[in-house]
Each structure stands twice: as structure tokens, then as C-alpha cells.
From TrEMBL:
Biased composition (Polar residues): 553-570
Pfam families per record: Beta-prop_NOL10_N, NOL10_2nd, NUC153
Taxonomic source organism: Scylla olivacea (Orange mud crab)
Compartmental location: Nucleus, Nucleolus
Domain Nucleolar protein 10-like N-terminal: 11-322
Protein name in UniProt: Nucleolar protein 10
UniProt region (Disordered), positions on chain: 466-608, 620-652
Length: 652
């Protein structure tokens, strides 16, 4: 509501919830099947009370504070009429179609909706006014509560008074303090409702609830709110045997038979009206606030059919039983206290009496035990055994092998388990310990396909990380392969030199020169590779010294190559140490190639210009193609000589 909600009702068929409020005065109708607002209508004045005359929202009657009574149909306002005095409550008698209206005077107005006219009013004994009125659907005995603290019963068939209950006198007989209160203020009836055909509940202005059997003039039970506020509404929950009594500050739920309290509902705003959803544990509260309050109590009943999901939610949020012992306390008997020398602490705040012993602080117990038994050999051995077992368990946990299936997921869960985020650590620990997820790391049916599109869409960050790891791994493998190839070329050259020297004796001189030229090219290429090795290759050479090769006859050239490679490694180590000590400006100056130029700008930015060199592969292919074309031109023969021999004769 914009400001305040006044009354709330549920239609008899249970499909609609209607509520009135202000300001501007209005009524809102909610449809539970759609869980939304169905319509909203505004009034000229505020609504004191309203009633639903049909099973749905098609027939409504509203009692307004400016003495008007409005009738609404499904389309809107149907009729509006005025009563002689200000109305306080209304109720409907279905068999005769009579609308009973309680007002500020002693009369109860009767309006027949079938004939469309007023009938003779009921004259009560009230001096100031009638606050509440009600019918029971079984016997239709009409009861009304007055400001004098009386309840009058009328038979609608004969229009005669059949009985009177003096609630003020009954309360005075039960509680002597009310005698003084009665002389100051009238004990008016502010709430009135039937539980069954024989039980009637009455709420008073002083905060008491009286339960009557209509066959007796003495109350069966009197329940006091003990807050001094008037009882504004009263409801009976038949399925659970509970009574809900509401004042402006609190809603109390208690047992109808004994009056023992079950629970209570309090809020920071005042309550105006109470409505219990039939055959359920849900209730609505109209308050002095913009929003109406909704409560669901599983102890009263199940959730309504239109919000059955609340039952499943309640099962998940069910509270666990509280532990029977304290974690930081030790239970000791009186004999143990005497042995520890703490018998004098009985009766002090240091001990808490429980059953046949006491609870005491665990730290105090340990200190007292060490003082009383400093050399307790049995406890010492027990502690040592526990310590040894814990160490063995920790050692077993540390040496646990990682699974071959979903290994990355297992490692990530282990990392999450050690994080400071408690929620993530708890989730990881549950996945690792729960037997239901054991097949995730043992069965190939649950192997995660990281190349699938679904995995990359669900885990885009993880897929990017995996790609980065694969790329780094491939680069490392390529570096290792290049280094091994370089070492293999060196050993192959050393072994092939002796064979080439022996085979050169029978060859011609030009072929020897070609072989020497190709060998010089290989030496130059090998020297270039060895002069610029990568950091990883150098570490592998240092970490894995191979076996010494058997001595073989080597030429002077191969010996020079090996010496050059060894010298280049030592020079690289020395140069690397020098580079680490050099400042950044000198390093940048050394890195500049002749085809590049680097300019330093303000704020630390740099500009680099470079020239793209042509790839040597394509240059080599063009050179080979050019040589091939020249060779073809040399061996090409002319066809001019063949023209004279094979001349074609002309036809005759």
C-alpha cells in the first residue's frame, strides 16, 4: 500500500487475496494462481471493515468511516448508501440475505439485500456502542460485543435476545486487580470469533482473551497478553488446536486447551488486522507500513497449494539439534574436584552445576591437572601415541599420489582447500572427501574433454589457461629438440670426418674442394648456433653431463669446432654475468640492430622502427629456379635443321 494497510481477507474459494489500505483509500485484489495483482480500485473515504459475499471477488461490501456502505460487483462499484451512525463492524447472514451492521449506538442495523431495504434494527443493552459482531455457519447464532464488556446472543429467526455474557465480571472474579481498573475505564469487547459450534473466543480492551462454552456463563480459559494493549483480532487454527490473538504490538500463538504459549511474532510497526489462510500454516498481517507481512509456520500446517515450494525450503533450513556438551568445557564430578584440589570452587562462577557434576573451563582443568599430577606416566604415553599417529597420518597424506584422470581438477581442488575463502575451501573439501564423487578421478567415463565447445563456453578462463600451458610446453619441447639436434650435428661431424678423410684418397680434386666448402658452411652454421644458445639449453648442458665418448681419430677441423663450442659456452657465461650488471640504457643500446631504431619519449614510452628482411627460404627457391632456367637455355637445341628433311608435300 502507499502508506498503511487496514484489512486483509482471503476469498472462500482460496483463489484471491483482498486487502484495503490508504492513502488514497483503495482495495487491491491479488490472484494466487498468477502470484500477481489482478485489479485495484480507489474509494472516497477509508475502509473500516469489509466482507466477501460470494466465493470469489464478484460481490464485495465495504463499511467506510464516513457512514457509507459500498457494494461492488465484478465490474466495479454497484451501489452506495448511508447509515444513521458511524459503523464499526459488519457481518452477513446467508440464509436470509441480511447484512448486520454494528455502529456507535445501541442499535444493530439490518439491511436485506434481496429486498433492497432496511429491516427493524436489533436493540441491545449497550450504552455507548457495539464493537464486534459474528455468525457461526452451523447454527447461525448471532453474537455481538459491546463497549460495556458484555456479549449478547440473538436468534436471527425470532429477533430476540437469548443470552448475555458479562466478560468484565468474569475477569474481575479471576483477577482482583481488574476491580480498580473497571472504575476508571470500561472493559470493552474488541474481538469476537467462533472456534466451533460451541466455543466462542472474546478479546477485551485490556489485553485478555476469554474462551467460553456457549452453554455456560463462565469462561473455560482466560489468557492474558500482559502488555495492556487491546486485542484487535482473534483467530482459531482448528487443524493444530492453536489460538492466534493479536494486539497492536504482538501476535501470540498458544494452545487452545491449556493456554501454554507456542510462539509469538513481534515487529517494529503496529498491527491492524490478522488473516489465516485456511488449512495451512500461512498468515497475513496488515500493518502500519507500506508492506503487509506474511509468515509461514510449519508447526501450524503445510504451505498452501499455490506456494508448495515453501515445504521443500523449510526441510532444507531445518535446524540441527544443539550439542549436549560444550566444546571448551570439561565435565567433572565432585570426586575429581577433590583430587584436583578445586573443591573450594563449588558455588562460584568458575563451575556450572549440571546433573551429578559440574562444567569447568578446559584450560583451568588442564592447568590444575598438571599441578596435581606433574608426572602422570599414563597420560604422557597416551599423548605420545596420539602424536605419533597424527604424524603418520600427515605423512600418508603428503605422499598421496595424484590421480591420472582429471588431474588438473584434483590439483585445483587441493589449492582451493588451502585458500582463505571458507566457502570455496568447504566446497573443495566436500568434493574430495565425498564417496559419491570418487568416480570423478578414477573412471574414464567422467574424463573432462577440454577440447569440447561446452567446456570452453562454461570455463573460458580455464580453457585459456590450458592453451597457454600447452603453448609453453610446445615451446620448451622445440627448444629442447633444437639443442639436441645441435649436439647431434656436432657428434655426427666428428664421426664422419674420419670416413671422409679415408674416402678422399680415390676421388678427384674438384669433388674434394666441394666437400670442403660444404663442411665449412656446416661449421659456420654450427658456430652461429653455439654462440647464441638459449638459457634453458645451457642449464640442460650443465645439469646432464653425458658420458665421455670413446676416442676416435679426428681431423684438425673437427678439433677446432669442439674447441670453439667450448670457448663459446664459457664466453656466454661471462657475457651473461656482465649483462646482468650493466644498466638498462646500455643493454637497450646493445640490443638495437642496424635495421632498427629505438627512440625514447616522455613518460617512459618508446618508439621503434624496423625493416622487414626477406625470408631466406624464398630467396633460395628463386635462386634455384633461376639456375634451372639458365641450365635449360644451355642445353636447348634449335629445330631449324629439321625443317629441310621433313617438308610436307603439297597435294596434287
Amino acid at each position: 500500500m502507499p502508506d498503511v494497510s487496514g484489512c486483509v481477507r482471503v476469498s472462500p474459494d482460496g483463489r484471491y487475496i483482498l486487502a484495503t489500505g490508504t492513502y488514497k483509500p483503495r482495495v487491491k485484489c491479488y490472484e494466487v494462481a498468477a502470484l500477481s495483482l489482478k485489479f485495484e480500485r480507489c474509494f472516497d473515504s477509508e475502509v473500516i471493515q469489509f466482507d466477501i459475499l460470494s466465493d470469489d471477488y464478484s460481490k464485495l461490501v465495504f463499511l467506510q468511516e464516513d457512514r457509507y456502505v459500498e457494494f461492488h460487483s465484478q465490474a466495479g462499484r454497484w451501489f452506495r448508501m448511508r447509515i444513521p451512525k458511524f459503523g464499526r463492524d459488519l457481518t452477513y447472514h446467508y440464509p436470509s440475505c441480511d447484512l448486520y451492521i454494528a455502529a456507535s449506538g445501541s442499535e444493530i442495523y439490518r439491511l436485506n439485500l434481496q429486498q433492497g431495504r432496511f429491516l427493524n434494527s436489533l436493540q441491545t443493552e449497550a450504552t455507548t456502542g457495539v464493537n464486534k459482531c459474528a455468525f457461526h455457519p452451523s447454527h447461525y447464532l448471532f453474537v455481538c460485543g459491546t463497549e460495556d464488556g458484555r456479549v449478547e446472543a440473538w436468534d436471527p429467526r425470532s429477533r430476540h435476545r437469548v443470552g448475555t455474557l458479562d466478560c468484565a465480571a468474569n475477569m474481575a472474579a479471576e483477577n482482583v486487580q481488574l476491580n480498580e481498573f473497571r472504575s476508571v475505564k470500561q472493559l470493552g469487547v474488541t474481538a469476537l470469533t467462533y472456534s466451533d459450534a460451541l466455543t466462542l473466543g472474546v478479546g477485551t480492551q485490556t489485553g485478555q482473551v476469554l474462551l467460553y462454552d456457549i452453554r455456560s456463563n463462565r469462561p473455560l480459559l482466560i489468557k492474558d497478553h500482559n502488555d495492556g494493549y487491546a486485542i484487535r483480532d482473534l483467530e482459531f487454527h482448528d487443524s493444530s488446536g492453536m489460538v492466534l490473538s493479536m494486539s497492536s504490538k504482538i501476535v501470540k500463538i498458544w494452545e487452545k486447551a491449556t493456554g501454554e504459549p507456542h510462539t509469538s511474532i513481534e515487529s517494529g510497526v503496529d498491527y491492524n488486522d490478522l488473516c489465516v489462510v485456511p488449512q495451512s500454516g500461512m498468515l497475513f498481517l496488515a500493518t502500519e507500513d507500506t508492506k503487509m507481512q506474511t509468515y509461514f509456520l510449519p508447526s501450524l500446517g503445510a504451505a498452501p497449494r499455490w506456494c508448495s515450494h515453501l515445504d521443500a525450503l523449510i526441510e532444507e533450513l531445518e535446524e540441527e539439534e544443539a550439542p549436549t556438551q560444550y566444546d571448551d568445557y570439561k565435565f567433572v564430578t565432585e570426586d575429581e574436584l577433590k583430587q584436583l584440589g578445586l573443591h573450594d570452587l563449588i558455588g562460584s562462577d568458575m563451575l556450572r552445576a549440571v546433573m551429578h557434576g559440574y562444567y569447568m573451563d578446559l584450560r583451568l582443568y588442564n592447568k590444575a591437572k598438571l599441578i596435581a599430577n606433574p608426572f602422570d606416566y599414563n597420560d604422557f604415553m597416551k599423548r605420545k601415541v596420539k602424536q605419533k599417529i597424527s604424524e603418520e597420518n600427515q605423512r600418508g597424506i603428503q605422499t598421496k599420489k595424484l590421480p591420472n584422470i582429471n588431474r588438473d581438477l584434483f590439483e585445483r581442488l587441493l589449492e582451493d582447500k588451502q585458500e582463505k575463502n571458507k566457502k570455496r575451501a568447504k566446497t573443495a573439501e566436500t568434493l574430495l572427501k565425498d564417496d559419491r564423487f570418487s568416480n570423478l578421478f578414477s573412471s574414464t567415463d567422467f574424463q573432462i574433454d577440454k577440447d569440447s565447445v561446452e567446456y570452453q563456453l562454461i570455463n573460458p578462463v580455464l580453457s585459456r589457461m590450458d592453451k597457454k600451458k600447452k603453448k609453453q610446453k610446445l615451446e620448451e619441447e622445440e627448444e629442447e629438440r633444437a639443442f639436441l639436434e645441435a649436439r647431434g650435428d656436432l657428434e655426427g661431424d666428428e664421426s664422419s670426418d674420419s670416413d671422409s678423410i679415408m674416402s678422399d684418397f680415390g676421388d678427384d680434386k674438384p669433388e674434394k674442394e666441394d666437400r670442403e666448402d660444404s663442411k665449412l658452411k656446416q661449421e659456420a652454421e654450427l658456430e652461429r648456433k653455439m654462440l647464441k644458445p638459449r638459457k634453458r639449453n645451457i642449464e640442460e648442458v650443465k645439469a646432464s653431463p653425458g658420458k665421455k665418448p670413446e676416442p676416435k681419430p679426428q681431423s684438425s677441423k673437427t678439433q677446432e669446432i669442439t674447441f670453439r663450442s667450448a670457448n663459446s659456452l664459457t664466453e656466454l657465461k661471462a657475457n651473461r654475468k656482465k649483462l646482468e650488471k650493466m644498466p638498462l640504457s646500455e643493454r637497450l643500446g646493445m640490443e638495437d640492430s642496424p635495421g632498427e631504431s629505438i627512440k625514447q619519449h616522455s613518460f617512459g614510452s618508446r618508439e621503434m622502427n624496423y625493416v622487414i628482411k626477406k625470408a631466406p627460404k624464398f630467396e633460395r627457391m628463386r635462386q634455384q629456379q633461376k639456375e634451372h632456367q639458365e641450365e635449360r637455355r644451355k642445353i636447348r637445341r634449335s629445330t631449324n635443321k629439321l625443317k629441310g628433311k621433313f617438308r610436307i608435300k603439297e597435294p596434287l
